[in-house]
Amino acid sequence: MAEAFDAVITGLDEAGRGIGKMPSGKTFFCEGVFPGEKITCRETSSSARFSVCEAVSVITSSPSRLSPFAPGKPICGGLPLAALAYPAQLDFKASRVRECLERIGHFDNELLDSVMQPIAACEPPVRYRNHMQYAISGGRVGLLASQSHELADYDGEKIEYEVFSRLRGALEKCFERAPTNLFEGLVLRASRRTNEVLAEFVSGSTAPHEIVIRDCASFIEDAGIRTAFEEVCKEAGYKLNGILLRISPDKASRRTRGGTRVTLCGTDCYDEIFCGRRMRVKAGSFFQVNTEQAEKLAELASEGCSEASVIYDLYCGCGTLGIGIKKPGQKIFGIETVPEAVESAKINRSLAFPDGGADECSYICKDVLKADIKSLIRNGKLEEPDVIIVDPPRKGMDPGVISRITEIAPKTVVYVSCDPATLARDLKIFARDYKITKVTPVDLFPHTPHVETVVLLSKLSSAPKLEVKINMSELDLTEAEAKATYDEIQEYVKQQTGLHVTHLNIAQIKRKYGIIERVNYNLPKCENPKRPNCPPEKEKAIVAALKHFKMI
Asked: Which residues on neighbouring strands pair with residue 191, listed in sequence order?
């Protein structure tokens, strides 16, 4: 066992761990301790750059500590800041956003002083989650300890809806009467506005699905779980919409919360009221876990959209943000890569605007990076946007997406971020063409280190444009070539016939019809390279596209 030493905690890292210095000067991270505390700890693991330590005792406690340090007691992985006073949590999150913008984005203090807004607190910071994912082990239902497969003790009042606490208790009583190893997890989702609940049991069994479904469905009935859930919901003023089973037999499906879903009783969805509009949330689909704070995100995002006629909603998910901020007459165009989310967005627009306005919201299923928005605008299939909203995953935005947005050049970009580090990285790129006008951190996740941020960006004014007319004959480009790009031809063929044609296919047919290609300096090194001929059905489709674009 490593020798114990004393140290002072100077800050928190992105995971909520305390940061300190070892006697050697090496940085270490330690769970369960807070800035300003003097602790005794010992090293448990080490790398070239830093060490991880375990606190043995707290010599001097922070004034913001709510409960005494308990050596050896596992810390709940879902609530690493539960023992830190809420004002101190807010200070940490606001400081982290600013620190990332300074250190990663290289934005100066003068700018940040002018654009940074106070963090939007969650009031009250308790019982805020509409979506809980529990582990089931040894008849208990709860949250795992940090870096462990064991359940940790935690205060449910700090995080979960009260009806979830009651449902957990009812399920544990059922397991006392009828112990089982059929399940390893439980997902509960609910709305406090529609009073609907959805329950999903998780099985990691590798047995044939039909056997797993039969056994789990029988147990839920025979052990009285369905009846117990219905009674708890009724007593709490809720309705149990449905019970589902998700079979996730491997690590990948458990990590992504994927696998096979089946509805054992009722339906696979519940309704939520978001920004005064009805939305449908399906099992497995994304919806912000803190409804009230998500509305603050929407309110902040809407500040950049008040004068807009056309709004693009990239990474739109189920369409909640765009639909939530839409005003009469505004057009929303959403892009999302998950097919199920796109279908949910189409359902949500109808639910949100039953009396008209749903037709002003349109969605396509496509990777944002691969969507050639510029071509769609040029071909009249889309109107130019006044505002583009981006709400990317934690990894942030691909530089190619940022490049496409700056090419489209909307007046305003609204960036909704769930990670300050990737936000700062992306804003550094945006800053070449846009200026930051407002940065507002929003606390959606009390008692955790996570923070959302809404940033408003305005297009920088450009120098006066000089109009120059150039004769096509002066360029190494024919008039026919100028009418459509390879990507536009490719997209047209795909939409009309479902065929995928390559750039080589298109080049072959263009040459065949006398459309001169520019010199290609990246030629094969052999004299007579073998290239496959374009199949007849693809040639026919490409010819139709060339005629459509008036190139032949």
From this structure: 196
